[in-house]
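Please decode residue identities from the backbone states below.
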């Protein structure tokens, strides 16, 4: 797990060595385990680790590469979180999965599951994207793995599909023209 040492020391990534030393001394005195009022051994260890990394020019340069990569990931997450189209697309995919599993259960109650590869093909969603949706639907209790390892809709999932259909009966979850 990435630890933001600049955040730990509450300094800018542009902070010079004098600033790092001054801030380190302040936090070290404040969180040192011998300080009866504000001592915090875990916080002190974090501060020492951050200081030891950032005070060494070679270690800091290596850390800054990882820091920039992490900042890029944060930026990507922020952009994705602000894009409501992604959430709307997820809702459609989840509804499609439930609809497929509903239809399969209605078609063959004794063998209600669909395998991972077939589910990927039928939903037109690649496995790496499908994992999130399957996790969510399982966590809600709407789908489950059955004895043979396939995925099937649960009673709660059937109720969910029925309640969605009652809200808007014109919704077409599956395109019958797809291969």
């Amino acid at each position: 797990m990435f630890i933001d040492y600049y955040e730990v020391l509450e300094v800018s990534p542009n902070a010079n060595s004098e600033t790092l030393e001054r801030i380190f001394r302040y936090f070290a005195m404040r969180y040192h385990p011998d300080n009866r009022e504000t001592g915090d051994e875990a916080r002190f260890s974090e501060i020492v680790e951050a200081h030891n990394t950032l005070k060494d020019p070679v270690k800091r340069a290596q850390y800054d590469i990882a820091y920039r990569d992490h900042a890029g990931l944060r930026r990507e997450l922020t952009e994705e979180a602000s894009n409501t189209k992604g959430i709307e697309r997820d809702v459609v995919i989840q509804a499609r999965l439930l609809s497929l599993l509903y239809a399969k259960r209605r078609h063959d109650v004794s063998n209600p599951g669909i395998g991972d590869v077939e589910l990927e093909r039928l939903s037109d969603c690649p496995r790496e994207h499908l994992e999130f949706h399957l996790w969510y639907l399982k966590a809600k209790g709407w789908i489950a793995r059955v004895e043979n390892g396939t995925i099937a809709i649960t009673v709660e999932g059937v109720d969910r599909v029925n309640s969605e259909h009652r809200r808007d009966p014109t919704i077409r979850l599956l395109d019958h023209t797809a291969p």
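Observation: The mean pLDDT is 87.
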